[in-house]
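Worked problem 6 (solution included).
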Amino acid sequence: MTVGQRLKQRRKAMGLTQTTLAKTISVGQDQIARWEGGVYTPSRGQIVALARALGCTTDWLLGVAGEGETRLTGSALSPDERRLIELYRAGQLPTSIQQLLLRLNRQNAKETLIEDVPDESNIS
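Solution. The predicted structure is:
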């Protein structure tokens, strides 16, 4: 299977259009069509960008590794996992983790206070 065939297979498996993939990696839709059609081969940098966008390894895209060595697809991720990835890519993950930890700490503190209140039925 060629790079173009793998690219097309992976793109379709992820439910992406050529236009969506093109926007993701900052190329024109016609460029994706040329790669998929075997007219041109993506450059090294473009292979890396395609692998990231398609959730696979560059080795798989180039035909060096087998299908079992691809990364998780977007459809295999839960909504929470997708949100974490979006936050990570936006550089906002550390802030979000801090906010989550603060909420958990507050929740745990409330639960601890409730547990520390003596059960009135045991008071003599």
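Discussion: The chain has two domains: 3-73, 77-118.
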